[in-house]
Fold this protein.
Amino acid sequence: MNNLQQKAQQLLESGNYGLIVGYEKGTSGKARPVFIRKAEHASKLIFDESCDQNIAVYLYRQEIKHDKKKVIVANHHTLKSIVELAAENQVFDGDFMVLAFAGNGDIIELNTFEEIEKHVATLYHGLTEAEAAMMKKIEDMSLEDRWAFWENEFSKCIKCYACRASCPMCYCPTCTVEINQPQWISVPSHTLGNLEWHVMRAMHLAGRCVTCGQCGKACPLELPIQLLTYKVALDSKQFFDSVAGTSICADNALAIFKPEDHENFIR
Amino acid sequence: MARIGVFICHCGENISATVDCEKVAKVASEFPGVTVSVDYKYMCSDPGQNMVKEAILEHNLTGVVVSACSPRMHEPTFRNACAEAGLNPFLCEMANIREHCSWVHEKSDATTDKAIDIVRTLVEKVKRNEALAPIYVPITKTAVVIGGGVAGIQASLDIADAGHKVVLVEREPSIGGHMSQLSETFPTLDCSQCILTPRMVDVARHPNITLYTYAEIESVDGSIGNFNVKIRLKSKSLDEKLCTGCGACIQKCPVKKIPSEFEQGLGKRTAIYVPFPQAVPNKPVIDRVNCTYYIKGKCKVCEIVCPTKAIRFDQEDSFVEVQAGALLLATGFDVLKTNFFPEYGYGKYEDVIDGLAFERLASASGPTKGEIRRPSDGEIPKKIVFIACAGSRDPAKGIEYCSKICCMYTAKHAMLYKHKVHEGTPYIFYMDIRATGKMYEEFVRRAIEEDEVKYIRGRVSQVYEKNGKLIVRGVDTLLMGQPVEIEADMVVLATAGIASPGSEELAQKLHVSYDKHKFFSEAHPKLKPVETNTAGIYLAGACQSTKDIPETVAAASGAAAKIAGLFSNDLLKRDPLIAVVKKCAPPLYSSCTGCFMCIPVCPYQAIDKEEIKDRSGNIIKTISHINPGLCQGCGTCVAFCKSKSIDILGYNHDQVCAEVEALLNEW
């Protein structure tokens, strides 16, 4: 048993914690989320490079909402999402403990939002090189080419809403697409309606996307839709100096105005 | 089943000149749900209103669309007419086919088609309107007046005389503002302080006025009728109750060479000071930046000499919170400093001064006891050049507007100089002479004809120093653009009037709009000159645009009348067009997710949290709640809410979507 498994076993045996949300070995070399309630199952837990899914999305789910105190094994995407969820009052201080990992693999216990916020401040915020290269490729396109590119991508979307289900920030019990009085976004999957959905999703994530890329990973058609929310994330950094998932205060770039704001472009 | 009445107004020819109103009425009569559709020359006239009322009764209408001017003009007229006929006023909508259509397009079929489209959208909306009842909120009958210059003083006295409480907030140690700095006033040449100081005393004495000097607005929340104003009382380092204003501390203060703000830097003051002898209140403050005790940690001479032991070195800023029904902005103006002008020496020539400094030189209470003497060597100048429009009306300097007061005060300055220095020669370089007030033109003629002020029409390109003289190079455009060079002893720049420093921050704290020059914006340039776009916040004086004293006082009394009018009612009737958080049946209760991101968005601090509890008191869900007394119905929260859980009554999602669809769908 490795450190993580031992730790998990201890926590569950202590009786103070009832549930551990983490990763287990999946198929095809991938990791998948696991929910462990019994100490003897602690050996299922793993944590390695394959554990790239953002599992903060499970924290506020009805199915585990009433579980005794929870533990979540968090990669850096999950940590940032927890901070953003805290800022948006979707998770509550003291409801769960976070097990994070230091650079040398040591387990770090984070019990309060303040501790999580401090730890997140030490992490890298921004796109990976590969992601940045993809962004650049799209941004360098002419307007016509870019439109053609997205038109082609959106034509493939089947509106399965896996992107929404995988995103920790998509927590609304009634999503705009499900409102039918009035019907804001058309239900069937066609290029224009798909574009409406994805643009709306990107705008709703403005200043809130932690650039985990989970939406793109979840897409069964492998559409690079994470680039849309990355774009608004980069813009909110550039224009408002606001990076989602760094502060537990409600200070969304689009929600607040400070007299000392330097963004002359909005005057 | 909807029974909608459509009433198309010709507005004389304002609409019918470009829109075929008869056709609009005919087409509208065929819209689904429209029972009656007529056109008339003046719908707002009595017969026009009667048409609406009669149609409501005859056809038992469920909604009315008046297709005429902007709702800002006649919406109240027609809503009242509907109410008189027994229809809920909020079932009446205006379709704006004048400002949005006939005024901005040529006569054509397309213009008529657009008018038809506009009517159609409103018909679709009004079908979904619901009967609403107005909201009544109590009014706190206290006004907070911000700024203690002549505008703030006049307004405070007027409101207080009407029997209401006033809190006057002034950031300087004394009220009085710029008017207390002036020597004589145009066009009568009566002494400024002599006419102002009695009012200052009245303010201090008035039982309805609470005066806070050396104080600033920290924050404001709430809305018309019920503002909550937090005022920062900057530390005066003094117990005002003990201080008798004897002035012993001022006499003994060892730091005596601080340039006096009141004297525009021409005189000196001590570190513990009152700005001028007639100051109200006449009690000193310690300027902590320059006080030896605060710099070096020792001195305390003032504390030693104070007979009542009133000095408090450790006093901190304190705060008071005031409940107010209305706010009045009277924060005044400032003038550009001479260092704004590279061509006139960047402010490095001591004898190039601005108009306010000249006021102090000419004032009997000023640093030279009213003698006109140059700041550099104290000599009496033989020639003074006055340059009007220094900065004003100069788009190249970013100030396109006319500062309005300079023509008159420059004429006054030249006149005062001539009265005091008979052998002196005043020159005035001007662009135009704007003397449009009562007795103003006569005043300028007097300056030219009786006092022989030499007016030169042209601009000054450069002022430079040579052999102790200021060489003023300009052009006389009335003499075919002939170059003029004058060897002056002193130059007075009528620098542009600009917004008072801190105006922008204050406007943002109060959520009032301001223009690009940071002057506060009135709600309507003609019909609402003393109101701001924020209900319950009024304007007076030069904070809106530079004004002379008569105009400022008139505006102050006007604003005071508005506030007294507001306070004449116990309850304020408000349109119920406010935001509500939608609720639904369990187990969801509301689609609101409780992210509370709407709370910082709301400009009126109208949103708080509401707990939904089960029967045993356990919290099931916490959602947003909008205070109907505070909400102004601006809709910012509606736009921000991701789950579309907030609606504005009278403008709900369904209505807005129906309008958009009516525009997009061809029938």
Notes: Chain B has five domains: 4-127, 142-234+317-332+506-567, 251-305, 334-498, 579-649. DSSP finds 18 helices and 34 strands in chain B.
